[in-house]
Amino acid sequence: MWPKFAFLGLVIIRLMVSANPDAKRLYDDLLSSYNKLVRPVVNTSDVLRVSIKLKLSQLIDVNLKNQIMTTNLWVEQAWNDYKLQWDPKEYGGVQMLHVPSDHIWRPDIVLYNNADGNFDVTLATKATIYHVGLVEWKPPAIFKSSCEIDVEFFPFDEQTCVLKFGSWTYDGFKVDLRHMDEKVGSNIVDVGGDLSECYMSVE
């Protein structure tokens, strides 16, 4: 029984790969000599802008005793990679491509004020590349962040928990990290949420 299932799986995989030869050819052409360790800029002095946006999937816990907030987030990131551009006319009209994110350069964005020593995202999902060189990557992550919480005036209190993200390797002259919804002339993005259901966690 198992050999039949294995054979069927191989047939399906082979059919899927051969179904879009243009996409495979594009993938090979883009990444055959691609160096994922090099920041994708024309000149080394150029600044690479990386846009980031967080989408809250779940507020897992607010630990009052240890002043830790645990969240499940989607960390949306976007940047331009000039080495990942192509003319769709030369590849059967293919305008976008999904590739393993660990095959291309990625900004090493981490949570600076993490509370458990885990800086990275949970799963290295695939990245989406568009023919103009735009790269989008939206990995999920579970973060435990330090957060000063004062509930003296509960339930009429208002808490502000800051998640501080940045590149671990590059300074602002190499990677300019910006919020996708950032307003012109401001580096603050207002967001809010009701944390009252999480106040009972004091362990």
From TrEMBL:
InterPro entries: Neur_chan_lig-bd, Neur_chan_lig-bd_sf, Neur_channel, Neurotransmitter_ion_chnl_CS, Nicotinic_acetylcholine_rcpt. It is a multi-pass membrane protein. Residues 24-187 form the Neurotransmitter-gated ion-channel ligand-binding domain. It comes from the Eukaryota. The keyword Plastid does not apply. GO terms for cellular component: postsynaptic membrane. One of its GO terms (molecular function) is transmembrane signaling receptor activity. Residues 1-19 form the signal peptide. It is found in: Postsynaptic cell membrane. Keywords: Cell membrane, Ion channel, Ion transport, Ligand-gated ion channel, Membrane, Postsynaptic cell membrane, Receptor, Signal, Synapse, Transmembrane, Transport. The keyword Nucleus does not apply. Belongs to the ligand-gated ion channel (TC 1.A.9) family. This is Acetylcholine receptor subunit alpha-like. The lineage of its organism: Eukaryota, Metazoa, Ecdysozoa, Arthropoda, Hexapoda. The gene is ARA1_1.
